[in-house]
């Protein structure tokens, strides 16, 4: 079954270039040249992945990403010519899962998209069975988590981070190690990205956010066992 990507990019040549690569790899591609069209297509179609350019007319990528996240946990990759750390952190705060800067290689973008889909669909790291920590349940096979029986609405990256921390229960994990393991060695990002995601994850976990302990000047530790 073909996956469907929603590609929102206002540069027609760039959009065509990226689309060609995804089509060659067997994807269906829905194209939008602005944020409003992207949201309309998202509402009317089953989409497996969203790729958003930040600087678009009518509705920018920030706003489009936020509105998609209000309704769905679909994986989102942001592409932009802006490489500032603060922009990347804002993108992650809005719920993006990956951040790719221009000039970009469509081939690399397709590879990142495929890797993100594999993680989202649970085909990576199937060694983790159903884990229970107090009121928190993590099911890596189903790629789902719940607190007191209520399903948590986590982005793919948030779930991946939670599962990674839980898998290393009781171990102190440095921010750089978490960044390399969850985002990948090729990710040229800032350790503050980890802090941003942990903050959002704790908020969604509610009282069970206590399970993720901060280790001063180092990183984090998942304390699942009292």
Question: Helical content, roughly?
Answer: 40-55%
Elements, N to C (H/E) = EHEHEHEHEHEEEEHEHHEE
Shape: globular
Count helical runs.
8
What does the model show?
With 226 residues, the protein is α/β, with parallel strands linked by helices. It has eight helices and twelve strands. Helix 3 (61-69) links the parallel strand 3 and strand 4 (76-80). Helix 6 (156-167) crosses helix 8 (192-205). The longest helix has 15 residues, at 106-120. 34% of the residues are buried. The model is unreliable at 122-128 (pLDDT under 50).
Properties at a glance:
4-stranded antiparallel β-sheet; 8 helices; Arc Repressor Mutant, subunit A; Rossmann fold; alpha/beta; about 230 residues
Question: How is this structure best summarized?
Answer:
With 226 residues, this protein is of the alpha/beta class.
Task: Furnish the topology, listing elements before pairings.
Layout: E1 4-8, H1 12-24, E2 28-32, H2 35-44, E3 49-53, H3 61-69, E4 76-80, H4 85-93, E5 98-101, H5 106-120, E6 130-133, E7 136-139, E8 144-147, E9 150-151, H6 156-167, E10 172-174, H7 175-183, H8 192-205, E11 212-215, E12 219-222
Parallel strand pairs: 1-2, 1-3, 3-4, 4-5
Antiparallel strand pairs: 6-7, 7-8, 8-9, 10-12, 11-12
């Amino acid at each position: 079954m073909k996956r469907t990507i929603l590609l929102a990019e206002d540069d027609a040549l760039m959009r065509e270039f990226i689309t060609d690569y995804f089509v060659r790899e067997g994807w269906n591609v829905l194209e939008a040249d602005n944020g409003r069209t992207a949201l309309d297509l998202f509402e009317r179609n089953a989409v497996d992945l969203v790729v958003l350019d930040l600087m678009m007319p009518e509705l920018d990528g920030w706003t489009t990403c936020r509105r998609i996240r209000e309704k769905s946990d679909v994986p989102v990759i942001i592409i932009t010519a802006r490489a500032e750390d603060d922009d990347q952190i804002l993108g992650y705060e809005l719920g993006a899962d990956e951040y790719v800067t221009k000039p970009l290689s469509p081939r690399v973008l397709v590879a990142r998209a495929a890797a993100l889909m594999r993680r989202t669909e649970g085909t990576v790291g199937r060694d983790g069975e159903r884990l229970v920590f107090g009121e928190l349940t993590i099911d890596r096979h189903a790629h789902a988590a719940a607190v007191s029986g209520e399903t948590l609405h986590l982005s793919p990256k948030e779930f991946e981070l939670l599962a990674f921390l839980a898998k290393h229960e009781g171990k102190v994990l440095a921010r750089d190690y978490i960044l390399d393991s969850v985002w990948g060695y090729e990710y040229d990002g800032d350790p503050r990205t980890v802090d941003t995601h942990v903050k959002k994850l704790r908020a969604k976990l509610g009282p069970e956010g206590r399970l993720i302990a901060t280790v001063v000047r180092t990183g984090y530790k998942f304390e699942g066992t009292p």
